[in-house]
Design a protein that fits this description.
The protein is an all-alpha fold. It has 16 helices and no strands.
Length: 370
């Protein structure tokens, strides 16, 4: 990608990819609810795709020129505007639903207390600093580790990776996730709390930055055929593995940087590129953060009320969850995400009138963070 290219035009298909990944997570939680946690469609592995996407887009937005250092004040304001308002709204809503409508025969969770409030406000829900680790709105564990990756890992990557020889970058964006998968599977640790959770975010984010820098330094572009075959193989294997084995195909996580490189930088004749860059799919990407944080509340309400018995089988539960989640997500995107980002980013711009690298706009904003 050349520096003069329009950022939003180059990542429309990545916005669409994020939208489809968000829907995959929705279907995962819907089917897990039906099976009472025993088994469901794959979903956890798509969170790792989010991490790689975030690294790639952060590199595009903030590391576009070596002679323009990142203005960290503007970066922090943009990240806060992107993540915090909707996180706080959905956490408060999920807490209210949990208290008012606890699972049948159960009391309200005892962990809805002051330490939990501190964790939600500091986005440390995935870190067991204050007793039990966990988020009021369960998927927000990934927002927790991604937030800290932005400020603990990205500054280091922005200094170190541009100085790494280009031929070493593939070792980073292929080998890093592969090593993490091997360690996590051998240790049999929890994937969503503690060190493994933060390592997932940091490793995926670093892989995204590395493949972005690799793409910037090479003239090679994946062919349309390679892009189509790779996309079909990755997504096909994720679901076939889930059907055959019953869990996520973690061994495919190292393929995500290649997938993003092919979709963002490949020849534009790819069928997958055109499909993901279509208007409706890109809009899914624009509201994907709302989809991600809104849908657990919909699932909780359906599981509690279930007036039509939708939680008794997969297909009705999936359809009902998607049909209800999409308009709710569009509303929270329109009335919470967009106004908050305009207000907070506007305030940051007024305090720093000449930022070195502008925050991502248009479709790029749909893939910048969740």
């Amino acid at each position: 990608m050349t520096q003069g290219e329009n950022l939003s035009d180059s990542v429309r298909q990545l916005a669409g990819l994020r939208g489809l990944a968000a829907l995959a997570v929705v279907l995962h939680h819907a089917t897990v609810t039906v099976s009472h946690g025993a088994r469901g469609l794959p979903g956890q592995i798509f969170v790792d795709l989010f991490f790689v996407l975030s690294g790639y887009v952060m590199c595009l937005a903030y590391m576009r020129a070596a002679d323009r250092p990142i203005r960290w004040h503007a970066f922090a304001a943009a990240r806060f505007a992107r993540l915090y308002p909707l996180h706080l709204f959905t956490a408060a809503t999920a807490a209210l639903v949990t208290v008012l409508l606890p699972p049948s025969g159960e009391a309200a969770p005892v962990w809805l207390d002051a330490p939990q409030l501190v964790k939600e406000l500091t986005l440390t829900m995935a870190f067991p600093w204050h007793g039990q680790a966990g988020a009021v709105n369960a998927p927000a564990w990934s927002i927790s580790v991604e937030w800290w990756t932005y400020f603990l890992v990205f500054p280091v990557l922005s200094v170190v990776l541009p100085r790494v020889r280009r031929w070493l970058l593939p070792l980073l964006f292929l080998g890093g996730p592969a090593l993490l998968v091997a360690i996590a599977l051998s240790s049999k640790g929890l994937w969503i709390v503690g060190g493994i959770a933060f390592a997932r975010a940091a490793t995926g984010f670093a892989a995204g930055v590395a493949v972005c820098l690799f793409a910037r330094g090479t003239k090679r572009r994946p062919s349309a055929l390679f892009t189509d075959l790779l996309c079909a193989a990755v997504f096909g294997l994720i679901y076939l593995w889930s059907i055959a084995v019953g869990n996520d195909a973690w061994f495919l996580a190292p393929a995500f940087p290649l997938l993003i490189w092919a979709l963002a930088e490949g020849e534009p004749a790819s069928l997958w590129q055109r499909a993901l860059a279509s208007g409706p799919v890109v809009f899914l990407g624009a509201i994907s953060y709302s989809i991600y944080l809104d849908h657990p509340i919909i699932v909780m309400l359906l599981a509690h009320a279930d007036p039509f018995g939708v939680v008794r089988s997969d297909v009705p539960m999936c359809l009902t969850t998607v049909v209800l989640t999409l308009p709710v997500a569009a509303l929270t995107w329109r009335w919470i995400e967009c106004p908050a980002q305009r207000t907070l980013r506007g305030a940051a711009t007024r305090s720093t009138p000449a930022p070195a690298a502008p925050p991502p706009r248009g479709e790029a904003a749909a893939v910048a963070g969740r």
